[in-house]
Amino acid sequence: MSEQAQHLESEHPVEHEHHVVNPSVYVVIFFALLVGTALTVWASFIDLGPWNPVIALAIATGKATLVVLYFMHVKYSSKLTKLTIGAGIFTFLALISMTLSDYISRAWGRW
Amino acid sequence: MSDTIVSLPDQSTARIPKVNYLSKENGLLSWLLTSDHKRIAILYLISITFFFFIGGALAGLIRLELLTPQSDLMATDTYNKVFTMHGVIMIFFFLVPSVPATLGNFLIPIMLGAKDLALPKINLLSWYLYMAGGLLALYTMMSGGVDTGWTFTTPLSTHYVNTNVLTTGLAVFVAGFSSIFTGLNFIVTIHKMRAPGMTWFRMPLFVWAHYAASILMVLGTPVLAIAIVLVALERTIGIGIFDPAKGGDPLLFQHLFWFYSHPAVYIMILPGMGVISEVISTFSRKRVFGYTAVAFSSVAIAVFGFFVWAHHMFIMGISNYAVLVFSLLTMLVAVPSAIKIFNWAFTLYKGSITFETPMLYAFGFMGLFTIGGMTGVFLGTSGTDIHLTETYFIVAHFHFVMVGGMLMAFLAGIHFWWPKITGRMYPEKISQLAAVVTFIGFNLTFFPQFILGALGMPRRYAAYPPEFQILNVFSTAGATILGVGYLLPVLYLTWSLKYGAIAGNNPWQATGLEWQIQSPPLTENFTELPIMDHEAYDYEWLENQKAKEVASVG
Amino acid sequence: MSHISPVIWQYLVKWMTNFALFPPEASRIAPQMDALLFFITLVSLIGLTIVVLLVVSFSILYSKKRHPVAVQIEGSTLLEATWTIIPLGLFLIMFVWGALIYFRVYTPPANAMNIYVVGKQWMWKAEHPGGQHEINSLHVPTGQPVQLTLISQDVFHSFSIPAFRVKREAIPGRYTTVWFEATTPGTYHLFCTQYCGTNHSQMIGDVVVMTPGDFKAWLASSTSGASLAQNGERLFASLSCAACHNTRPDARGPSLANVYGSKLPLSTGESITADDAYLREAILNPSQHITQGYAPIMPTYQGQVSEEGIIALVEYIKNLNSDYRIQQTTNTTDLLPESEGKAASAAAKTTAPGKVNP
Amino acid sequence: MSDSPAIAHGAPADAHLEHPSYLRHHFNSVEQQADTTNFAMWLFLLTEIMFFGGLFTAYLIYRNWYYPAFVAGSHQLNVVWGTLNTVVLIGSSFTMAMGVWCAETRRRRGLVLCLTLTCILGLCFLGIKTVEYREKFEMHHVPGQHYSLQSFLDPQSNPAVFAEYHDKPLALDMARHTEIYFSLYFALTGMHALHMIIGIGILVFMIFRAQAGAYTAGHVTFVENFGYYWHFVDLVWIYLFALLYLISRHQ
Asked: In chain A, which among 48-107 make CB contacts under 8 A with chain D?
């Protein structure tokens, strides 16, 4: 619902100037993504126990964030776009966490 | 006061405006290639009516079969196919698109003061997808049908039936995309296409309700899509994600399926609630009581609606602790509905009420939805769910919500906006009769089913123990009356297209922007960009407006 | 009355004589469930009455004739809070009450008598520990908690006894349980309530509740010769389980005596209670729960043992109180040279000739 | 409840005079149109998140249940191909972003070049994917009737890509669950590849339109929105790469 309240503000600066991202930013992000890829592949070959997935997913999330913020211009976009993404992630997490709430607690006591 | 109300236009002399969206272009192509939201709404109206009557005919067959305890009218597998197709058609091809795709499509741009939906071509595409899905479903029916139940329960649907699961799945998948595009279009339109001055809290509650429903359509439907894709892959290639023989968990399918299909019931009911808000306000000449609460309750239903799906699985062997969580959240989602009912009731308070057909349907909605909602609490309460779920109690419950609620709201809306859509009035007396017939028929059909369910009669039974017969006979008798109640509007509404009285711009003296323009509207809706300078349901503004007009004419 | 058609008259008489809103209450939980149902019904009726009263009285009081000019009212926070909080409170009461009943229905007491039920398209097969088989019927005594361990061989089914107010889905691949204590002798409906294919509506049967004396007599009269555990023992022997699960110091598998109900330490460091579900898992997916100190060498028996066979094995392991019986099977299997002959000979060695489970 | 900012009141709807041709009749301004289609694209991507979300949920659950099977399964994937594909896709994302920039700054030839490169890189990705799929086919790792447990029951017969793992044979029951891993692998990468194919189809269409100068006249919404789609598909791959190839390498 706070969604709504914020929409109110984000709504009307419709007339904002179209932001053109400098290509040098793209180049930097491109190389950052390559470095991220190299890093995550390297890390996957070291046995870190439970930390392997954590690190891999953290790097993946970092890369995804770069893509979303710069390639997809979200850094320069309206609040509405950011909220939309937020809503998507929220629902996605709802799907995962609520489903897992069943799977995790099945082992607690008999079914 | 009554003297300030401008009397209806003299209907003997009134004319339907020469230029309107209906008359602008002629020929079949001008309809099939239109991008006018109003014409697309009409296309939808015709097609969902078609599917409604197919689904209705199947319902008639079901009731006939259940007249006697034995399965004598048709073989059990025929019966299974009949109720499956009844479910699939009614849910995916009638209820989900019913109000949004017809009334919502027609009215949302006008209510917001826009010339069209934000994405007119996508809108047309969504109708074509709907038709493609619908025709595929019909093809499925002709070519042998499908007998999984509309829920496609795995592993039954993946390994144990030989019927057309794939084509049905594809039909639902395609129809799902139609629904996604409709919802997406509404959200974008509501965010971006509002006229100057049309702030969020000046929007009619109809729009709020559609906004909430659209969120559910956009975020829920894809999960159904992937669940269906996985079922299809499991049937064809034999992947093992839901297959217990390969270590998969069939309950995962239930999770994914209900993640959409529970919010889907809100997709179905929320737009209906929007209609009721408009109708009740208009016919009691009064602002909706607690506008903000009603608006937020729609959004609350949408948000909470995503967290309750597992209450369809209480006895399926999900963890007891998950049951606790989902049962609690189910109780929370019941509250906003209660708020709405009481707010509507209090809208009547100190109003000036008239009882035209839409209002009768709205009263019917309030009564039946209250029963439907309260029986939902029986099922959301984990303990009583054990006894009542999978029986006729649940059948009665969702028919009270979907038919008693949504269909009543749909009919209320169709009658209410009929003058705007066609420019002509429906015949009042016979439609009031139809409303009453529907109400009586409905209760006779579905109320006995609550008792049947409490007695333990399982759903989806082609044959049943003889002691349940008498209540089933009542139910079938009621269905006959209900059928008449639904046929009547088709007949007299069609009649009114030619012979109905000319309606004029605002026959109900309602406040919405749609009533301030000609009926039927222009293709562009507005001759000039409207500016919203008052709250929604501002009847004083309307009075002033009329007074001004009278003054200027005088 | 003479004008009423005899058919309708017949229906009416039938209705008058049979009219009921609830099925009979034949279990301990039934009155408790009905109390909650009654409470929710009452609340619903009150709620419905309030709504109808409001609508009707406002419609009369403020109809256009009586009240030509509407008074515009914004709303009332106080009123709205009232009809938010009161329903919420009532719903929460229902939630807590309902959850208590839910946990009661699905938490069997320790002294419950266990009956296994296998659902398949389209019949229910009940297996009593004494070896009595039933199809589409279930005999239970009064005054004794009965736990059902349910599993499906194919699709989802749902085991429903309306008179007991209990219901549980039988799902493929996993045991589910429900329990009840019957109170009134009689014959009651047994339904499959989860749609399961063509003959779903024929998957019905009778639950026969008997006094403990009658039940004993019934058990004695319908014995199949070997108890479930004995069947399990035969299967245990024919599958050569004792080749590893024996008591020798160099045994490759843990001894199974008294294993049921104990806390097993796993190789992962966790521990798990060995209940029916665990035993089933251990037979079908052994590599997933390795008991500490043993190598993951047990082969899976998936596809080799039917659900009934697994039930027999589980029942056998459940009743293993000493190593003696395992020793017995070890001896028999050791003596047998050919694996083919094992099953038959093992069967021949046990006391009563009976059907070996597939 | 707030007053809306005063927007030019009563702008006559028929002030079509100096409107560019690409402005659809029901919008008031180019900005509104661009904003709207942009927002619609984001909403569409939201549905994509949920579409893949269902599969990710399944993946998460089964990985926790059948971890050894997932390890064995992921050892059958070739990290080299995976990494290469990741690089290819990141590259295509970069060229796409450059394409959007070209369109914004009205460089027609640059745009055509960038789109073509994106298209080629996309095809490269699919090519590598095909090679990988063929490997799976040959080793009977495609779920279904012909699925073979050979390489999990007897790793020596069919050494994993990186021999240093010295995979121990899996128990039969766990080996069977590798089919779930490959079910998810094919469902996830298949859905992803389908998105790629659709994307490449649109790219080809766009290249022709770009050649004609359609996107370099100030109206870049289409290119921009397609770019979002393409980046999103890239983004899904970033996660797929981590989930399928990387996180389950150690027992």
From this structure: 48-49, 52-53, 56-57, 59-60, 63-64, 67-68, 70-73, 77-78, 80-81, 84-85, 87-89, 91-92, 95-96, 99-100, 103
